[in-house]
Write a structure and sequence with these properties.
- The structure holds two protein chains of two kinds.
- Chain A is extended, with a radius of gyration of 37 Å.
- Chain A is 27% helix and 18% strand.
- By secondary structure, chain A is α+β, with helices and mostly antiparallel strands.
- The longest helix of chain A has 27 residues, at 61-87.
- Chain B is an alpha+beta fold.
- In chain B, the strands form six sheets. Chain B has a nine-stranded mixed sheet, with helices on both faces. In chain B, strands 17-16-26-25-24-23-22-21-20 form a nine-stranded antiparallel sheet, with helices on both faces. Chain B has a six-stranded antiparallel sheet with strand order 3-2-4-13-5-11.
- The longest helix of chain B is centred in the C-terminal third of the chain and has 47 residues, at 1025-1071.
- Chain B is elongated, with a radius of gyration of 37 Å.
- Chain B starts with a helix and ends with a helix.
- The chains are: A alpha+beta, B alpha+beta.
- At the A-B interface, helix 1, helix 2, helix 3, helix 4 and helix 7 of A face strand 7, helix 11, helix 13, strand 19 and helix 16 of B.
- Chain A: It comes from Denticeps clupeoides (denticle herring).
- Chain A: It is found in: Membrane.
- Chain A: Belongs to the CDC50/LEM3 family.
Amino acid sequence: MAASCWPASGFYREKKRNCSARTAIFDGGMMKNKEGEVANRPDNTAFTQQRLPAWQPMLSAGIVIPGFLVIGLVFIGIGVALFLGSQSIQVLESDYTGLNSNTPCYECSDASKKNCTCSIEFTLTKQFDGPVFLYYGLSNFFQNHRKYGVSRDYYQLSGDTAYFKNPSDSCSPYIYDSGVPIVPCGAAANSMFNDSFRLYQLVGGTKKPVPLDGKGISWWTDYNIVFRNPPLVNGSLAAAFNGTAKPVNWAKPAYELDTSDPSNNGFMNEDFLVWMRRAALPDFRKLYRRITQGDYAAGLPVGNYSLEISYNYPVIGFGGRKKIVLSNVSWMGGKNMFLGVAYLVIGSLCIVMSLVMLIVYAKYKFPEGDS
Amino acid sequence: MCQKKKFTMVLLIKPMYNTWEVKANCHHFHGQLRRKPFRCFRQRRNAENAVRSYRYTVLTFLPLNLYEQFQRFANIFFLLVVILQCVPAIATIPWYTTLLPLIIVLSVRGMKDLSADLARRRSDSQINSRPCDVLTPAGFTTLQWKDVCIGDVLRIHKDQIIPADLLLLCSSEPHSLCYVETADIDGETNLKYRQALSITHSELISDPAEEALSTFDGNVLCENPNNRLYSFKGDLYWRGKTHRLDIEHILLRGMVLRNTDCAYGLAIYTGSDCKILRNSGQVIVKKTQVEKDFNRVVIGIVLTLLLVAVLMAVGSGLFEYRVSPKMEVLSALGGGSTPVYRGFLAFWGYVILLSPSMPIALYITFEMIHVVHCLLIGWDLHMYWANNDTPAQARSKSLNEELGQVGHLLSDKTGTLTQNRLIFRQCCIAGDIYGLLPHQKLPLDLSWNPYSYGGLHFHDQRLVDRLVKQQCPQSQEFLTSLVLCHTVMSDTTFFAGTIRYQAASPDEEALVVAARELGWVFLSRTRDSLTINALGQTLNYELLALLDFTSDRRRMSVLVREPGGGLKLYCKGADVVILERLQKDSPHQESTARALEIFAQGCLRTLCVAVRTVTEQQWQKWRDGLQEGEALVEELHGRMERELMLLGVTAIEDRLQDGVPEAISSLRQAGIKVWVLTGDKTETAVNVGYSCRLIDPDTNLLQGEDFKDLDVWCIDNRPPWSKVTVVITGHQLADLMEEPEWGARFVALSNQCQSVLCCRVTPGQKAEVVRLIRKHTSSVTLAIGDGANDVNMIKTAHIGVGLCGVEGSQAVQNADFALSQFSFLCRLLLVHGHWSYYRICKFLHYFLFKTTAFALVHIWFGFFSGFSAQPLYETWFIPFYTIAYTSMPVQCLAIFEQDVSAEGCLRWAALYKTGQRRDLFSPATLAASLLYSVYTSLVLCLLPLGAFHSTALDYQTLAITVATSAVFTVTIEIIIQTRYWTKYNIAAICLSLALYFILTLIVHSKILHDKLPADFYFTGTSLNPVVWLTILLTTSFLFLLAVHCAERKMFQLAFLLLIFLQVHSMMLPTQVRRPGGFRRGGVLRHSSYAMSQGAGFGRLITSGTGLHATAPAQEGAEAAANGTKENNDKL
């Protein structure tokens, strides 16, 4: 038993020393170095030795302060450009919900009235440069609600007739109208905005219609890729929709959305496409028409105008508002004061920060390059 | 023999513990095929000798591995999320967004496990197919290890590894003794002996061996397999008699047979029943503090996520209650369910939607980064030791960052700080000091000595000249005493013309080797004689008595009869002991005392050598006394070792490893408390402490009696503590441990002191000390050692480091890191540890930031979308964000980042303190990081919403704007975080951004939409300038803040560096190396020699067991060899 706890003795150490004795002075024949004995030697590469050539930027005051200054100036520049760009955009905005009795559409705001029309009159004292865009705006309407968003059938909308008979469950509860499948199904389509607008210039007591262009108002990919009409049956779109029901809130089936232009029907109706593209926020506006033709291609001249509204879409029930917006566009799209102001604020902040740092730096000067 | 009936009969008479039965050679009775039959077992199936450490088979891999992986909280969480996503009502994002990352994580992990398992398989089959000789009816046959069965009789040859636990039946050596090396079992490299029962020895020795062995029909009844390496209980029933067996009769699997030509054994335990395999028990998986903290954070994230989901559900309920009923569309979508139910659905919807904020890929990335860090440790050329061709090795793959936080270093001394190579440096003979001139490094001319083969570090030609010319009888007597007075054994075979020695004490070995080099060669010993060769003249001394060394006596003596017939007693021992036993008029006492002082100053271990002439009458008297009884022995020894004449003093150097003083001073600068725990004596430890710069020359030692006033010491909080070193012995420590409050005080005291030396501590106490520190401080402990006695400590500490030293591999086997030299520890901690800590802290913070910042956006968007759990991202973006867009740069950061170069880390060791103070990873920094990500998510959501307010821009454009901003923001964040830009970092960032654009274009492509319109509905991307301006605004808004913070941190770093520089320059004067050896006020002699804690070979020598009484071993060995040859011929 005692044998089990002897400490290390020299017997086998002697042997092991052979390899550990390289530095020691041994003259015996046994203790020769073997040069080949480096099998486990790690590779001497920059990677394994962690000596990869590297750039080690130091964020010193000498870089940061001028950097902030330059960024600040650039941002102020962008901000000024955006601000001025935004300023130059003319916007005419009018709420036509008709909540108050003194507003033009007060009568129409009663949900029980059908086919109600009202008109808003306005005067332009300044030329409204073209191209002028006509938007409608809704507020408090949750197009970005998740259930609203998923309540559509992408297969159906891409013209897959298999889904005309069996719409996707995601359309619930707008799948079947008394047993007949709804096409286009879902809440998104069902709640489509259906007010329509006509613009007239009042010239000497007569109403001169301003041509509104409904072409190309939809998203390019929606029009060209995402939405597809079903294959025509006997050259007729209506026949292709055979055996389907229109969405319950719609007055007309999808293939009769635009009676004036046969190609602007079904899922390729541009108003439908604009509506189906979900808004980001509960307050949104959507493009209705562009004024690009005839006498008004260069813009709306000074004068009196009347906007005739066919008032159909109820919003008062959920506290929503309806707006009509006339706007022209610049390189940055519509009027957007927020961006310009934000750039200006950040730019000024940068400059202030760089000044503060400069003061701090001047006060507690750190020796550069010491480390 | 093998029939059941008999078993039960045996069962009745056997003692309680003997429930394991083995019958030798019982395959004869079965008469079946060779392999299967002799399962002479009862009760349960005994193991095959094949080891099986692999876990998976083709069939079980998938279920087992998945089972293991799903024990991780994160994985099970995501599995639950995937299951939730299959419920349409709450599937806010489709199932593939979570399943895709989950599958990738699982498969990467699975591949890792599989490759590790395959490696285990390979090593298993390598072990299982090792050859061994098994006795079959046809004689001994070479089979593989896995074929060995219980009851087999095996033949083990010299230097073979023992394949199973065997009962030693007989061996080729006298008395059936056999020597084994147990390095693989307990790490000790010295030889141990095992001896067969005398009955089996006498009955089973035959020529050829098969004859007797094949008829051996003994029946072993013993205890069930267990893990006790040092005990064995059992009986051998043979020929109607019972023989008691204990551990001395057992050869354990893993031992190596040495110095014995052949041993025959009966397999008792095989395979996983073997004691050594029973011992390889549970591996304790160590986790770092950082990982534990982060796990808490992850759980915190989950809880927060649930809380947020509850709040959002409340919001949703309110929305459904107040807004939806008024809106025909929404109320219809609600499907008539109550607001509460809809809120409940919204809760689950938000749980799914916010689940990406749980860092799913974190753990696998974390593991991969650890593996790379471990590889980098192994690849470091600065930690590769060419002398034994060993690179550093990281055995544990999860402790890297903790290397950068070590607060307490607990080091073994022997073999760790010192080389465990004792060198005869100087001596003093008759008052003349030899070998004093250290600069005289010319090797001695020893060509006249045929037995010389190097190994001497003694440089003094004067002594050699005097010896050779036989001018100085005292020096001859001195060497004669060295060559006679020891318990060293010489190898019976001549190895390449030299003699190998085997000693229980390395000091003795050093002395005998030195004597051999100087011409006094110890050739061999028998029970009662010693053969030496003095200057070419072979002399035979009769050994009359051997008074062995004990730690009480601190000396040993031999009484010999010279060839001329005279009787002499040679004695060597500690100076104090010997000097008081000298003759009154013994010469050279003063000069010797001076020599002792000089040797002590040089940190050398000294032994005094003395001689006494004894008359025949005295010897007769002693012999009679010796035969009388034990009680008088001590006194008698005292009487014999008296009236000595001083011959001289030997001085042995316990060499420090290369670079140890420098390493220790660096580690101390780094703020690491160094404790040395050693089994050695106080004096030795203190001396080593001085020489390795653990203790400064002007340091006060707090030791011994001072501890009585520990109360006073602790209360009195005086500044000069920094110059105090605590020296404590094992006994005092044991006393301390008994009173818990003392332990706390002791640790508090020690923390204020410069260093601590614990001497005379047992392996168990070493672990106790580690536990004490762990209990009373929060700092990370690192234990380093090289021997089996350090295993306990290594396992207990946060990090265990093993040195691949001379003491076997036990320490390394249990360590988390293996190094070849102590000085490499400096680089391991200060460079690799610091970098790992720095990288992993940065990595974790960034990972947390990137996952939460991107996922929390949904909370804010909820306020604008009626709490409907509407995702703000396209569904494909979510998995790709985790997998592709943000994963590579952070991995590069975690692999390549360096705050300071390796040289810088070593130069400014104080930088290491950031890790000890946990500056980079603490609840505060985590909270800051989380706040920052909340802020980021707010900006990511609100700025685009502000820009999009009342415009005709749609949801899809918003989603792309926010997603692009998120990708840009986290990319910019990593750009700011990266301070060390290699080509890989740049490539990773470019690739990530490129992947973002390419994958986005692919996902938005017409082709995919045409195939699966419902899954790829984000067709077409807006290139509106407002989108880009918003992205620029959002990212730069976040960027500027990040730069500002980073730059402030930079200022701090520069400031810190400045301070370090100043401190460094102030410290320079004290860093000047002391020339030469060490000098200090009070010279402490230390004399004596290191002796094992157990007994040496003394008993073996005096009892004569294993020593050939008269005849040299050669003949027997030859006979055995011939026997083997014949056997082989037969087969």
